[in-house]
Amino acid sequence: MKFSFKKPEEVKKKILIVEDEPMSIMVIKKILAPYQFQLVIAVNGLDAVEKFEKQKADLVIMDLYLPEMDGFEASKRIKSISIDTPIIVISTTDIPEDELKKDIGIDYLLKKPLNIKKFQDFIHMLLLA
Question: How far is CA 32 from CA 41, 57, 78, in A?
Answer without folding.
Answer: 13, 15, 22
